[in-house]
């Protein structure tokens, strides 16, 4: 028997999860209760959390959601969330995962909840297809369409020099010519001066204002305490002109943030710093995967070997009339783009 239940409070989730959503049980930072707590602090007033758990055979599946409107759910996520998916405990096999997801889908279709539609993004393709199948079996209309891309590098046991030899010649030449101009520091703990340098560079970059500097600093401090933080800073004559924020954990390096000062582009500081960060991650940290987050920027192809699609999953409860206009629009949009509608 699969048991499903809803929660509207993260403290209640923590009580029943009993550590299964903590760091030592969840390898990915975006799947941890601490991440959802920090994310919840960013949510605008008027939005309520809704967490769904299904449990069977000692395993759990969680879906962390928020009510954007009374009848519409979205992920409990922010611009810092590089991937969103169901969170599992006790490593259920594929069959049990399907049963757990169907139970979540049935629970969310309950009339008492009043849910007409759910939109989830960015979801890795395998998880997106699993969600679509499970919700379809439970009576939902499901539409899966590309949202963005995720570039990754599979190290496959290589050392940095082997990886680097396979990069485009222009990239290698740029690093070789520019690296002598710059001083590189990589910190594996939280350093206040390094963080100030990161914020200075970000403020002088082409990027929009940071969404929540407090969120990001708190995350960096926590990861620094856990030993997973990597902050890289490139300086020219003592001035920081490029900075990057990575985490390294469980064989995976994630590039969370990177920026360079716009007026220092001629020195290629971001490129030189990236080469140093990749070398550190591969040769010293021994990672087997490097994840470049979200976005299909052309330059990422020079560094990475694999592009994965991150999907948007739209789910419609057609038993509720308020779902019909949204479903019709999404259905027509998907047909125009040649996407699957079920």
Automatic annotation (TrEMBL):
**Under what name is this protein listed?**
BioF2-like acetyltransferase domain-containing protein
**Which top-rank group of organisms is this from?**
Bacteria
* Record field: transmembrane: none
Matching entries from SUPFAM superfamilies are given as: Acyl-CoA N-acyltransferases (Nat) (SSF55729)
Cite the source lineage: Bacteria, Pseudomonadati, Pseudomonadota, Alphaproteobacteria, Sphingomonadales
Please give one Pfam family short name. Acetyltransf_6
Q: Which InterPro entries match?
A: Acyl_CoA_acyltransferase, BioF2-like_GNAT_dom
- Limits of the BioF2-like acetyltransferase domain: 185-300
According to its UniProt entry, this protein's organism is Sphingomonas sanxanigenens
